[in-house]
């Protein structure tokens, strides 16, 4: 079967550049949206040029220019959005409604993957403010997609390894300590942590797979379903010493949010739901979902042990 042509929106972002790499690596004709109003962001421009050198094609279009967006969409089969969805990187989730309008008008798209890549928003209606805004906005986009009868796949990639594993699941910490660690509660709540390159690879694998059409794809690599305490134990074995452990209760954690900037409060809410509530693992995948590592066992995913070895 001929591989789909892919357009990636937000290709210079944190997960977007991984998606471009994976799409090219798996042999897809890959297009990356280039905004005309890039300004003086030379790093972003150089990254776009590097994509071009690797074989990607740049399409000049903007979410704020409907016709340019329609013209771009008409050149491909699949659209993947990786626009920023967390406040500290810029929250642009609802901008995708313009993309939905363009896809609907173009009428040729076989699959649309909106920017999700984290916790399944359909399961987060109870989420605390201000972190709930991210989930609510993603559900607004989902509703627009489904009302427009656009074929879709939603990617629930759980916890990015870069944010969770590196800091031993401690908020606002991306490198591991070698002396001490703060456990959330008893540290025994299970989470799921996935390397960002693996997220991109699984994502691109789904786009021509009929099994993932109009489904939510959950990425749950078995060896990376771990509690915070288990993550710490892996690190302790790697460095050959036991860390000094303290703990923070759920009440203390939530109280510590007060007075902090909006962006930090939003991030802390996400950590609360993952590390105290267990929102990534406290449910079974239903008929409307499939699990990526079972669909694509050929992907040799990065384990938590392998990821943490990078810090030695």
Question: How would you sum up this structure, described in words?
Answer:
Its EC number is 1.23.1.1, 1.23.1.2. Keywords: NADP, Oxidoreductase. This is (+)-lariciresinol reductase. Pfam families: NmrA. 38% of the residues lie in helices and 18% in strands. The chain contains 12 helices and 15 strands. Strands 3-2-1-4-7 form a 5-stranded parallel β-sheet, sandwiched between helices. The protein has a 3-stranded parallel β-sheet with strand order 8-12-15. It is globular and about 55 Å long. The N and C termini lie far apart (43 Å). 43% of the residues are buried.
Compact overview of the structure:
The chain has 312 residues and is an alpha/beta fold. It has twelve helices and 15 strands.
List its traits:
alpha/beta
Helical content stands at 25-40%
Count helical runs: 12
Q: What amount of the residues lies in strands?
A: 15-25%
Query: Could you state the order of secondary-structure elements as H and E?
Result: EHEHEHEEEHEHEEHEEHEEHEHHEHH
Strand order of the largest sheet: 3-2-1-4-7
Helix/strand/pairing category: alpha/beta
How are the SSEs ordered, and which strands pair?
Blueprint: E1 6-9, H1 16-25, E2 30-34, H2 42-54, E3 57-60, H3 66-73, E4 78-81, E5 85-86, E6 90-91, H4 96-106, E7 111-113, H5 132-147, E8 153-156, E9 159-160, H6 161-164, E10 180-184, E11 190-194, H7 196-206, E12 215-218, E13 225-227, H8 228-239, E14 244-248, H9 250-255, H10 262-277, E15 289-291, H11 292-295, H12 304-309
Parallel strand pairs: 1-2, 1-4, 2-3, 4-7, 8-12, 9-11, 10-14, 12-15
Antiparallel strand pairs: 5-6, 11-13
Helix pairs in contact: 1-7, 3-4
